[in-house]
From TrEMBL:
Ranges for domain Tc1-like transposase DDE: 98-189
Name under which the protein is recorded: Transposase
Pfam families named among the record's database cross-references: DDE_3 (PF13358), HTH_Tnp_Tc3_2 (PF01498)
InterPro entries attached to this UniProt entry: RNaseH_sf (IPR036397), Tc1-like_DDE_dom (IPR038717), Transposase_5 (IPR052338), Transposase_Tc1-like (IPR002492)
Organism of derivation: Cirrhinus mrigala
Transposase Tc1-like domain ranges (all copies): 2-64
């Protein structure tokens, strides 16, 4: 059973054994699996990459492999919060990655949050904005918005969260939220803002400094997903 499907859980195995007339506990299933030489592991979830996307990732990484940490530090990473009225109650969070918003809504967020953030961070200096290929990001109207505002957008390969350190930043925020247990939308917003504010510049710098290593990893993996 295990050899046919490595992704089955102990619960799945126990259910199949029970259906075949073998009554046993989860602990017993675990011991028997261990005795057979198998080990329980949580599989890493990686985006599905076909050959075309792997090639694009590898090409992109090859083009970017000479970028320095200082250059990666000039990527804009703004933030804002957007309430959701859907059940269950939740808060959409945006910070150089898109929530489920339309192109028009995304451009409003860029106008009211990204531009002031960029002004504060860079003043009159040029910077490069990075976002993924979400529909709101890749819309023609969004492209025109960036052109009209004279902002350079970094070319980005599809299905590549391992190349984006902001994903690791969101993971840090989520880990910090586990003990917060907010009960209302206002409490959730406050907890997210507090978690974000607690992230140190050193943590951000370490993530940005990892970009050359991520680039090397993609090239070495020939475009396949990496450990990042």
């Amino acid at each position: 059973i295990v050899e046919k499907d490595r992704f089955q859980t102990l619960g799945d195995l126990r259910k199949q054994w029970t259906e075949s007339g073998v009554e046993t506990s989860r602990a017993t299933v675990y011991r028997r699996v261990q005795e057979m030489g198998y080990r329980c592991r949580i599989p890493q979830v990686k985006p599905l990459l076909n050959q075309k996307r792997r090639q694009k990732r590898q090409t992109w990484a090859t083009e970017m492999q000479h970028w320095t940490v200082a250059q990666w530090s000039k990527r804009e990473m703004p933030k804002c919060l957007k309430s959701s009225v859907k059940y269950p109650q939740s808060v959409m969070v945006w910070g150089a990655m898109s929530a489920a918003v339309s192109a028009a809504s995304y451009q409003e967020i860029l106008e009211h949050f990204m531009l002031p953030s960029a002004e504060k961070l860079y003043g009159d200096e040029d910077f490069i904005f990075q976002h993924d290929l979400a529909p709101a990001h890749s819309a023609k109207t969004t492209g025109k918005w960036f052109t009209d505002h004279g902002i350079t957008v970094l070319n980005w390969p599809a299905n590549s969260p391992d190349l984006n350190p902001i994903e690791n930043l969101w993971d840090i925020v989520k880990r910090k939220l586990r003990d917060a247990r907010p009960n209302t939308l206002d409490e959730l917003k406050a907890a997210i803002e507090a978690s974000w504010a607690s992230i140190t510049p050193q943590q951000c710098h370490r993530l940005i400094a990892s970009m050359p290593h991520r680039i090397e990893a993609v090239i070495s993996a020939k475009g396949f997903p990496t450990k990042y």
